Each structure stands twice: as structure tokens, then as C-alpha cells.
Amino acid sequence: MAWLDAVVQGILLGGLYALFATGLSLIFGVMRLVNLAHGDFSILAAFLAVVAVRVLALNPLLALVVVVPVMAAGGYGLQRLVLNRLLGRGILPAVLVTFGFSVIIQNGLLQIFSADSQRLNPGGIETASLALGGGLAVGWFSLLTFALAVVLLGALQLLIGRTAVGRAFRATSDDGDTAELMGIDNHRLYGFAMALSLAIVAIAGIVLGIRTTFTFASGPDRLLFAFEAVIIGGLGSLWGTLVGGVILGVAQTVGAKLSPGWGILTGHLVFLAVLLLRPAGLFAKSRRVD
Amino acid sequence: MSLLAVHDLSAFYGDFQALFGISLEVAEGEAVAVIGANGAGKTTFLRTLAGALPVAHGSVRFGGESVAGRPAHALVDQGIVLVPEGRKIFPSLSVQENLQIGAFRRRTGPWTLERVYRLFPILADRRDQLGTNLSGGEQQMLAIGRGLMANPRLLLVDEISLGLAPVVVKHLYEVLAGIRREGATLLVVEQDVSQVLTVADRVYCFRKGTVSLAGAPAQLSRAEISAAYFGA
Amino acid sequence: MATRTAAVERTTRASRVGAVLGALLLGGLIALPLTGESGLMRMVVELIALLVLAQMWNLLAGYAGLVSIGQQAFLGLGGYALIVLADDLGVNAFLAVPLAGIVAAVFALLTAAIVFRFRGGYFAVGTWAVAEVYRLLVANTPALGRGTGRTLKAVFPLARETRELVTYGLALAIGVVAMAAVYFYLRSRQGVGLMAVRDSEPASESLGVDVYFTKLRVYLIAAFGTGVTGALIYLNLLRISPDAAFSINWTAYTIFIVVIGGLGTVEGPIVGSLVFFVLRELLADYGAWYMILLGVLAVVAMMRYPQGLWGLIGERWDVHVFPVRRRVRLSGPDEAANR
Lengths: 290, 232, 339
Known about the structure:
- The complex is a heterotrimer of chains A (about 290), B (about 230) and C (about 350).
- Chain A contains 11 helices and 2 strands; from the N terminus they run H-H-H-H-E-E-H-H-H-H-H-H-H.
- Chain A has helices at about 1-30, 40-55, 60-80, 90-115, 140-160, 165-175, 175-180, 185-210, 220-235, 240-260, 265-275, and strands at about 130-135, 135-140.
- In chain A, helix 1 packs across helix 9 (about 220-235), helix 5 packs across helix 6 and helix 9 (about 220-235) packs across helix 10 (about 240-260).
- Chain A is globular.
- Chain B is of the alpha/beta class.
- In chain B, helix 7 (about 165-180) links the parallel strand 7 (about 155-160) and strand 8 (about 185-190).
- Chains A and C meet through helix 4, helix 9 and helix 11 of A and helix 5, helix 11 and helix 13 of C.
């Protein structure tokens, strides 16, 4: 029973990982940019929520309403002012600049908030649980998180598949130069993609902050898990990313059951196994691994 | 008054100068052809007009306004639309989505999805298939349709005959002639001289980045064209 | 028509001056122990360690186009290899330093099998992911001291001055060998192939350069150099733990040094290391602000001055202390073409 419980927890955790992963793969798909500060941005959002809770006396879930637009706007500005200037210069500048942002954000958070661990408290919902029978219980919040992930992924799928902006994303991802000739302003589009990515990752960060404690240094692990979920699931497939997240989540929770220090490591090892056996991921649309 | 007036245009393709002082005009409702051998600068010329390459020197006036230096997406707003060399169909988009993306800037005009499907019924049959699953000729129709969806004031057409069988090319040029009859203004770049002259009111010949000949097809002899094309 | 001769020039005036200055500097460093300034000696060891790390990363990213943010894996592996070789296997601690580099290179071979499946940005994250795996594996291994780590005991019998002196000498040797190795590698045929790969993989493949093995070779060399440096660092510090040895901060410092100093030049990392060191001493009391400043400088440098400090100097005055290019010098009527 403990095993089944671990698997269920892992599945629900996977939903959260899928959210982290989606923001990362969205901008990679559209701009071929890997944002090394991706995880740190989510933690930044969590800290902003902490501030919103303290200063505005908001419930953390309501803080979403404040923090997400701020992060989205920040993402748009960041892309247009800084990252757009790095386009066409190969991957090195983008990797180094986003790595620089990671260092700046982490140390900025350390300086402002010290190394204390933080937690967002929405007043009880995060501990309530639902009995599923047979001695199995799941947290309401975990269920909600998973449901939220599915809803957001579904909405994103609709956006990409059915709207003009979504077509623009796909066209630009295929061939940016020709997309410009169709009248698509790449610079604005990238700004919008980054805004969307940071909005999603802000939601993920705040949800994380409710689930568990976090510190200024929690960002990098988020990036790694997001990356692993994307690779396991395969590039180019949103629902594949959800499956990838779930597999990673289950690997981590089952691994932790085996031995407490082995949770995250088991996740890494499963990731490596998938990489070695099916390098394109389980549901890849494209055959490339780049 | 000409719709498009290019004066002394020079452009570079990387470090390499491809155009040396091109001057050219297209009047509203005209179909103008630009012919020339490989490497003569024809595609560079169209791409510069479309905003994909920067104008190094010279002026480009469209509808009386100077448009040199504007980015490609802004030029589509003005009505300058390119059907690119090599089709450049988006592989992740279906046929219908490829057409829809042509209308991204939502310019008003006579061209709609239904009208493009009437012009190219085969596209309607294949509307949900991925754009790159089509044959070469069908992709070319899709590329032209995509261009029309932008409701262009000036349609720039780059080498539609490349890689296609003669009978397909003939059909495409009949389509272009039909579009022309409905009042569209065309600037067509082509290596296949005989086909394009069936559509053109006037023709320019490029050689090594300069205009080597200009005139109406009826007034130019084969020998003159050949000399201008290949060099005397 | 007058005859023209062309000669291929491989040294510059600056390099000849630099060689003299370098020899003088080396002499000074060798004489340093005589002053008994052990604090200064420790700092020199640290500086050399950072310099070698930077040269290795520069080789990878600036010349081979491989942007790795996981080199800390080899630093940590080198450090732990030192402990295992010296304490558990009874190898002389100083001899264990280069051997630790070989251990790191072996792990690099394993690592490459995984990370070479990625390109570009995902390659970078992949190297980080693998470094994390190594860190967690070490942190979960009882024989390696788990999370608390281990102490290098093999050097305890030695007198402190002796240990410090030999460590210092070893550091100097490593520094000189590393600089010479990087310099001569880049000047060699393989080095030219490397720069061709950096500039264009398809083009260099068509010219017969084996891209995969060229990159692998550089990856292994860099891992070796990084592993040796890791062993040196922990020979100096004596105490190793997984969180310190496999910390991403090593990569952060390295990147800063290379970016500020000048990516893709041999002189850049030298300049960068000096700047880094000076900043560190100046801002020692400011904790996190120091790292924030590093990050901001690196971002600004990457955006506005990608050629780094040395690049700015080198371009302005056309100075190359470590020339890796070959210049064609024409004599005869076209001498004016020489610049």
C-alpha cells in the first residue's frame, strides 16, 4: 500500500513538474533558447508571493493574481530589452546571459530574504486530504495541482493549435525568416512567448511554495527537473511533457521510498536511462535532440 | 504614377555585393518580369524589396512613400508580399493553417480562404494535411495562395518554376495570368524566360547585379534577350 | 614583374615581449617561497587553480563551441580521486594529483556518451544534470564520507612547511604545463581543426575534420585539466565535501573569468583571473553583492563586449601575446599589404 501511495503521489507531483517543463519547452520551441534561470524565476515568483502575502495580507492563492501578471510583464521586458539582442549570435551568449541571471536572482534573493526557508500558507487547503478507500489518501492540494496542470496544458494546446498566435509560434519555430515575411514581428512574438513562459513558471513556483518549503537556492533543481521531464517526454509534444513529468515524479517518490536520500537521484537515473535507450524521448514529434 | 519605384538600389548578401545600382518601376496593375541567370541577383532583389535584406544604398518608393529600411513584417502591412523562392511552406502547419498565416496581418481585400480554395481546388481537398505532404506543384500553389491571403498591393513571386515539371509550370502561369486579369500587380522573377513572357507587360533582365535590358516583350528580340541574359 | 615571397609568421612582437615578461614572472614566483609568505603562496595556488579551470573551460566553449556548465563534476571527481588514491590506495599524495586527472578523464568518457547526445542549450543543461548525478552519488556513498565528506590524511606525516612548499611547486608546474599545453595545442594542426569546428561544423567536416572525435578529445583534455585542478585545490584545502566540490559556483567563477577576460583568446583567462581575484579581495565583506556584481558584469560583457577585456585590448592595439594564428607576411611590391 505504501508503494501505491508513493506512485499516486508521484503522479500528482508529475503534474507540477509538467508545468515547470512546459514553460521551458515553449521558449525552446519558439526561440531555440534555453533559459538557465527558468527555475530561479519560479522561485522569484514564490518570493514575490511571500511579499504580497506580507504586505497586502493576501492569501497565497490570491497572490497569484498579483504575481503572475508582474512576472509576465517582466518576461516580456526581459526578452525585448535583453534576450532579443542575443538572437542570431549562437547559443553561447544566451546560455551565459541566462546563467548570469540565475546567479543574480539567487544572490539577490539571498541578500534580501537571507537563507531562511520560506513557505506559503493558504490556510489549510494544503493539508486537507481525500480518502480514496483501501487506506489510500491523497492531498486535496495535490489533486488540485494536477488538475491545474492538465487545464493549463489543455489551454496552451488550444492556444498553439487553434489561434493565430499559436500558428505564429509554430511558424516561427519552423522558419523564423519566412515567418517575418508573413508579417509576423519576431521580436514581439518572442516577448509574448517569454511572458507566457514566465507566467506559467510563476504559477508553478507559487504552487511549489505552498506544497513545500523553499529557499533562494531552490531554483536550479526546478530547472533540472523541468529539463528532465521535457527530455523524457520528448520534444515537441505537450502531453508528452505531462507524461515525462509523471514518470519523473513517480521515479522520485518511489526512489525516496526505497531509501530517503535516493529520491532525486532515482529521478536522475531514470532520466539517464531514457536518454540512453530512447534519446528522442518517449513521445517526440521531432527526431532531433537539440 | 508607379506603384513601385526603385532607384539606384545596392544590396549585399553577407559580405558579397549582389546588387549594383538597380533602377526599376512597376505601375499599378502591371505585371513586370525580372529574368536572368543564376546568381544575377534576382532573388536578392526581391528579398531586399520584401525587407528580408537591408538596403545598402538607393531608394525604394512604394505608393509614393519611401519604404527602404523597414522590417519585413511592416512591409506586409503596406501590401508588399513575397512568395519566396523554394516555397518555404511551414512544415508544422496544415495546408489551411499555412493559408491562414498568410493573412496574419489581416489586411482587407478581395482574397479570402474560400476564394483561394476556388482558385486552387486541390488545396481545398487537402486542407487538413501538413503543408509539406503536398507535391512540389501543389506546394507552389499553396505558397501563391498564402501570398494572396495577405491581400497584397504588390505580389513578389520568386522563381515558381524551380524543380517543377513544365506542364505544372504552365498551369501556374495561367493562374498568375488570371490573377493579373483581376487587377493584381505582379513582380515575377524567373529563370524560365518563355513562360514568364506570356504574363509580363514589361521585362527587365539582370546580369551580375545590374539591369542589362528593359522593355516590353513584343519589342525585344530573342537575340537581344539572350545577349542580355548571358552577356555578349 | 618583381618576385614576391610569402613567409608564414607565427610569433608577434608582443609574444616575444610576453615571453620575456613571462619568464621574469615565473622566476619571481619560483623565488616566492624564499620569502616565507605562506599566505601569499596559498593565494597563488588558488589563482593558478582558477586560471587552469578557466583555460580548460575556454578551450571547451571558446574553441570547441561546447558550452558546459557541468565541469564542476570533474573538479569534484578529481578531488575525491585524490583522497581515494592517497588515503585508501597509498599512492603518494602529490603523485596522485595528475593521476586524479586521469580518473576524471575516464569519467569524462562516460559522461560524453550521455551529454554528446545534446546540442546547444540542452547540452549545457545536460552537463549540469550529470554533475548533479555525480554529486548525489558521492553524497550517498558511505566510503566517500557521504554528505560530510572526508579529510586528506595522507599528508599528515609531513611538516606543514614542506607540504605547503611542495603543493606550491606542484601548482606552479601545473600552471606552466597547462598554459603551454593549451597554447601549443591550439597552434598545432589539431588546434586549427578545433577552431574550424568552432566556426563551422559542416564546413570542417567537408574538409575532413572528424568533428565528433575532435570534440571528444577536447572534452577529455578539459576534464583531465579540471580533474588535476580539483585534486590540487583539495590538496591545498585538505577537506572535501560533495556540496563544495561539486558546487555550480566553480562554474560560475570560471564563466565570469573567461567572459570578462575574453572568450576564445589564450590571454583572456589570465586577465579575467586577475580581475576576479582583485574583485574578490576588494569585496570580501560584501557576501552576496559580490556574486550579484559578477553576474551583472558577465551579462553586460556578453551583451556589449563579447570579446572581453583582452579582446578590447587586443583589437585596439593588435596585440597577441599568445598568437595562435598564422600570419602570411608578404615581401616585395605588396609589402604595404602587411598590417
